[in-house]
Amino acid sequence: MAQTPVKVTVTGAAGQIGYALLFRIASGQLLGADVPVTLSLLEIPQAVKAAEGTAMELDDCAFPLLRGIEVTDDPNTAFNGVNVALLVGARPRSKGMERGDLLQANGGIFGPQGKAINDNAADDVRVLVVGNPANTNALIAQQNAPDVPAERFTAMTRLDHNRALSQLAAKLQVPVAEIKKMTIWGNHSATQYPDLFHAEVGGKVAAELVDETWLRDTFIPTVAKRGAAIIEARGASSAASAANAAIDHVFDWVNGTDWTSAAIPSDGSYGVPEGLISSFPVASRGGRWEIVQGLEIDAFSREKIDATVAELEEERSAVRELGLI
Ligand code: NAD
Ligand code: LMR
Question: Rounded distance, CA 287 to CA 293, Å?
Fold first, then answer.
């Protein structure tokens, strides 16, 4: 019997990440080489024409797995029956914009999109928020979707995870694949904590293979500020690497993994207040993320985790005060 296509919705489809993402989804890299998909491209009215152009290009690739494309500016249409929702479109911070203004503007996007997911999505919907501030945007969407299991709302720290792998591999002159158990904790922001005390290279603890000064003064800030460094170099935020990380996140969520990093709703593990969408070491089994349990957290890591979690708590308080959740 022919397999029913999986509906994947991408918001901000005409943007940079959208352009780097859509072709990879349609070629089978998001879900697997034997899984047919339909794509829904959600944009704001001014960008619908550009998204239609991308849809024409998708047609022109004649991807065997791509069974349909819709382009719309209506969230209820875009999320109707959606199985995988990639929330990429967001309001960037503009000059002179205060943090509260940014959260308010994004609340105006992620609140209604959460509601549209609540009202229209398939029962098995999985949501990945990429648009910044990703963790708190995911919280806003989740809180506006009370009928969807809370655990289905996640935010992306996989790009940070991949950056950490790459920086450590370069330092130790080892292939990326030799590094296991890398973890990003907390927020997708400059406060995030890339943790080498649980990462392993050839069975040895990564933190013991590098000197402390490099770990503290080079590795952590390089990973945490990489997004800003890319913007400085490219004049635009990371796009292909962000799309690649979104593919990794969803592929592992659906197909399983023993260890990666993802921002998922906290169950209180490792002292992270329940409900915050915070990055953890996670495994995926049976299509569900699970926080890796039982790790010893030393004083250095505790301080770093507490700092990034405090920032998430501040963001949660701010969106509460704005009435967005
Ligand atoms: P972009 O400006 O090129 O594209 C954003 C697109 O979103 C635009 O086409 C815009 O029209 C659309 N959009 C805006 N509001 C929308 C709405 N309400 N519904 C649907 N579409 C809407 O930006 P980009 O480079 O593609 O980046 C997108 C977001 O991803 C940004 O917030 C960026 O900061 C973030 N980002 C996150 C990570 C991460 O690791 N989590 C990495 C890189 C970028
Ligand atoms: C990144 O990590 O590359 C982005 O989140 C940076 C940004 O602010 O868009």
Answer: 18
Q: Which of 49, 12, 5, 50 is nearest to 30 (CA)?
A: 5
In the structure, which protein residues have their CB atom closer than 6 angstroms to any atom of ligand 2?
132, 159, 227, 230, 237-238
Q: Strand, coil or helix: what is 320?
A: helix
- Told to judge if 188 belongs to the known catalytic residues of this protein, a careful annotator would answer yes
Quick: pLDDT tens for 31-86.
Answer: 999 999 999 999 999 999 999 999 999 999 999 999 999 999 999 999 999 999 99
* Ligand having the closest approach to the CA of 228: 2
pLDDT at 1: 53
Distance CA 44, CA 11 (A): 9
pLDDT < 70 stretches in the chain = 1
Three-class secondary structure of residue 15 per DSSP: coil
Task: Evaluate the CA torsion angle 113, 115, 121, 127 in order and state its sign.
Answer: positive
Q: What is the per-residue pLDDT for 102?
A: 87
Q: Does 163 show up as a binding residue in the annotation?
A: yes
Quote the ipTM score.
Answer: 0.99
Nearest CA to ligand 2 atom 2: 227
Letter string b/e over residues 203-219, b meaning 16 or more CB atoms within 10 A of that residue's CB: eeebbebbeeeebeeeb
Q: Which of 237, 247, 264 to mutate to test the pocket of ligand 1 (most atoms within 8 A of CB)?
A: 237
Within 6 Å (CB) of ligand 1, which residues are found?
Answer: 11-12, 14-18, 42-44, 47, 88-90, 92, 109, 130-132, 134, 156, 159, 188, 237-239, 242
Closest alpha carbon to 282 in 300, 267, 304, 271: 267
